[in-house]
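ugh finaly. both done.
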Amino acid sequence: MPSKEPSLQTIALTSLQGKEGFIDLSKGQKGTVVFFLSPECPLCQSYSLTIKQLQKTYASQGFQFIGIVPSKDFTVADVIEYRNHYQLKALPLWFDPNLNLAQFCQATITPEVIVYKPNGQKVYQGRIDNWAYELAKKRKLITEHDLQNVLEKMSKNQAITFYKTKAVGCFIN
């Protein structure tokens, strides 16, 4: 019997309530934004306001936002504390304890973001913007808003082809 190829929508994740779930791309009419996050990564903490603002702006335009914690090193309490402290209560957070989704998506850094069209086509992967350009090095002025630019194009139904930027942050392991 041939094995079924994994897809974004068939890789099991674990909710904060301990239930198994999957990413449902149909919930993002315009697209789905997947953030790989680590509660102890300083850049994930620093980007929480930006994530919250992007979600507030684009969720109402038909985008689904999901946070993935790719590790078995964090407890539910750790993730809830992170979510509450950084006011990310509107962002659904899921565990990827065996890194199956991270490996499938080829995500290697937190924070790293991937944007999918409703049909499952990946259109962007990488950094949120160019604020952090190396570990412990940040610009005073952000000049490239990569994720926001992708969401703007998609919200206006403009053509977009896949592109990738280098994410900076903590390694997924």
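ok and the 2nd:
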Amino acid sequence: MPKLLVSDLGTRQYAGALELQRAVARARISGAFSEDLLLLVEHPPVVTLGRSSKEQHLLASPELLRSRGVELHEVERGGDVTFHGPGQLVGYPIIDLKRHKQDLHWFLRQVEETLIVALAPFGIVGERSKGFTGVWTGGRKIASIGVHARDWVTWHGFALNVTTDLSWFDLMVPCGIAAVEMTSVEREIVQVSGTAGASRLGQAIRQTIVAAFCSVFSLEAETLTSAELECITVKLATA
């Protein structure tokens, strides 16, 4: 079975994680890096603007964002404005769709399915919302998805609210969807077997995400430590 390298970056600034994605994607496109890779990360507060972002969907001024310690980045992913921050699990799949299916819409549906499968063990019924990308539960949005692809290699990815302070989303019209109600695993969950507290919940979610991703994409996970990933990126930079 093909491998999925999985690297947990812990907490990392958005700009550094973005450059890492781009470097690996470039290497994947050129053939210098040959494995599918899933990066898991948590970011300090940051607002990102995708290709479809509309000015009126960011309700806070850049000055207000700076005063609250929130970075602002315009990026190449699809979608509108969204937030990343503490308590949110962000996943960046750098996948060569030529090895799977050369269809970006299929890939988006597969990522949605991954999140739906991963939420099920926590008693959360994940749903799709017709005409939108992402995952909902009970009509509330729990995960956002925005990707970019070149030569059928993907980067950017998904953001799952685990213990996220949902008031951050008051700074925007999340994903440009008027009147959307955001939610989190912590808010939705009634009882999590074998977990207690935010840190253990976050770790449990990471494990189910990896297992679900492998199941949905027919891959076998292999852990890649941060040190091993750093070594690979150094080699790619000097190749």
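summary for the 2nd one i guess: Confidence is low (pLDDT under 50) at residues 191-196.
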